[in-house]
Design brief:
The complex is a heterodimer of chains A (389) and B (291).
Chain A (H helix, E strand, L loop, with lengths): L4 H10 L7 E4 L2 H11 L4 E5 L12 E4 L2 H11 L3 E2 L9 E2 L3 E5 L3 E11 L6 E6 L6 H7 L4 E5 L8 H10 L4 H20 L2 E12 L4 E3 L2 E5 L8 H4 L9 H8 L3 E4 L4 E5 L2 H13 L6 E4 L6 H12 L6 E12 H15 L5 E8 L1 H9 L5 E4 L2 H15 L1
Chain B lengths: L10 E4 L4 H13 L3 E5 L6 E3 L2 E4 L2 H8 L3 E4 L3 H13 L4 E4 L6 H11 L5 E3 L5 E4 L3 E4 L8 E8 L2 H13 L4 E6 L10 H9 L6 E7 L4 H10 L7 E6 L12 H5 L6 H10 L3 E2 L6 H10 L1
Parallel strand pairs in B: 1-2, 1-5, 2-4, 5-6, 6-7, 10-11, 10-12, 12-13, 13-14
Antiparallel strand pairs in B: 3-4, 8-9, 8-11
Chain lengths: 389, 291
Amino acid sequence: MDIHEYQAKQILAKYGINVPVGDIAYQTHEAERVAKWLDEDVMVVKAQIHAGDRGKAGGVKIVRSVQEAVEAADDMFGMRLVTPQTGPQGEKVHRVYIEAGCDIADELYFCVLNGRDANGITVIASTEGGMEIEEVAEKTPEKILRINLAPGVELQPHHARKLSYDLGLKGKTARAARKLMMNVFRAFYDLDATLIEINPLALTNAGDIVAIDCKMSFDDDALYRHKDIEELRDDAEIDPLELEAARHDLNYVKLTGNIGLMVNGAGLSMATMDIIKQFGGKPANFLDVSGAATPERVAAAFKLIYSDPDVKGILVNIFGGMMRCDSIAEGLVSAAREVGLGKPLVVRLEGTNVKLGRKILEGSGLPIESVKGMAEAAEKIVNAVKKAA
Amino acid sequence: MAVLITPETKVICQGLTGSQGTFHSEQAIKYGTNMVGGVTPEKGATSHLDLPVFDTVAEAVAKTGANASGVFVPPEFAADAILEAVEAGLDLVVCITDGIPVRDMQRVKREMHGRKTRLVGPNCSGVITPGVGKIGIMPGYVHSPGKIGVISRSGTLSYETAMQTSNLGLGQSTVIGIGGDLVSGTNFVDALELFLDDPDTAGIIMIGEIGGTIEIEAAEFVKSWNRKKPVAAFIAGAAAPPGRRLGHAGAIVSSGMETAEAKKEALRSAGVRVAESIVEIGESMRDALKG
């Protein structure tokens, strides 16, 4: 689960990390109240969306008066910000954060994340803050400092010392940086975060260290023990179809194509997308109904895909395994009847009671094409959608 | 003599009395697995599915001589269940549970270091030696005894693979579902090592996915072999769009090696026969066996 920058900063502050003073606004008059309360010569107005690179897209404005702050916030509300991380449709701005400007002397980068294959936690620091870290890694890989911790091992003071020396920090600043690293790690560990990225991490002219921007993500599987984090979820940031899917415990991701897919298992879902692409089609979604594909969940998933106006045809690919194909077929037929099936539907069922399942599909009187193989299924749906277009 | 599950394997189920544990243990017994008991705290000295239930794994081991376990407990208790099985000295622990917090599994990894127990999973379909026994959630009937070792991150794709190799008359020595989680007990290299040493395994199929780099490490491992066994592979996710990322750091951790194309290329250069589609994996294996 992702949270907003201002929420991440509130968490950092709780862990003793310096962040600029600020507050959130949902409407223009609230922005005015916040700016008046801050009463700073320089303030920063920042659109809150769950994606980075907001600056270039107009989501971050430096202002020098309450009036300017109000105008900047007013412009941002309702705006669709398109950044390299949002996709072409952009993200709508519902919340604007206003904070005090910071007297920045230098910008660093600091990040704690779960390293995929090391199986432990990875800590990354760089003197090249304020830039995209991917770019730094590509152009000047020697400027990426990294510590791969063994599984279950926590960041130790000696790690922080080494990083502070390697960053070229001295005296009070080095001490402040080490304290920050240990505190960020503590937050990461305590809260079951999967990513805490501070970029830039500012060195001020007074020698302080301040987190200027922060992204945080959390382990969905651990939210049950962090109710306070779970409350930070912002449903407005999630696609409405994805929200509906989550309500039915379906693993759904909206994509840009026109063939709706319903598959069980993430691996089979991906392999089905691959084979659709090989036949020249484009999937409209990824949908994994997962292990317990009950008739009710199959029906809910089918209706969800069917309701997507981008979907011009549907392919169902279920390897029943422990599930009985006849009950899957029954769920499908009743959902198809309910929606009045006006789009091509190809179904490939495999597994227990498969013959009975196919018989139910064929005997339904609905225009359902029941096929035996995955390749045949992909080819049929791609052609059907092409013909309908 | 296959790997992991052999006729000497005596299996207990942790979480036997729960709905998942009950259903899949019933299936395992029907399949002929040597199930000797189950563990559910507070339900010791009772019986379930005609199997004795114990309060602790240690007691189950002492009374039944069990050497393997299937973990079917809810995610919040799964790490503890795995560690209990490790402490009890089991040879094999197969954890089916999906949704265990990453931090818990990192702790499990550390605690298991230097211990003799092999963990398969979590979030996996389990392990089956066709005709001998199974610990997991896979449908037994698509498998048949034979000579192909299968290693898969995905459960459903391992069923597809089993069905294809069964239909081609190759069969499987053992199928290992290694699972799809960030932190897991057994990776491709571990499983390849097992099959390489197994005289009953003539060829190996690897089913990988986008994300992570365990397939790349597997390719390097295959390249280093002195005694060869033919390997065929499929990598799912070539058509998956890169997911929306919150931060940038994920991409630099593995430096571009997480894509399907990078993995396929690494495997090809190690002499692995790569199937472009899952429907071709059985034939790819058959062709690789011909050399």
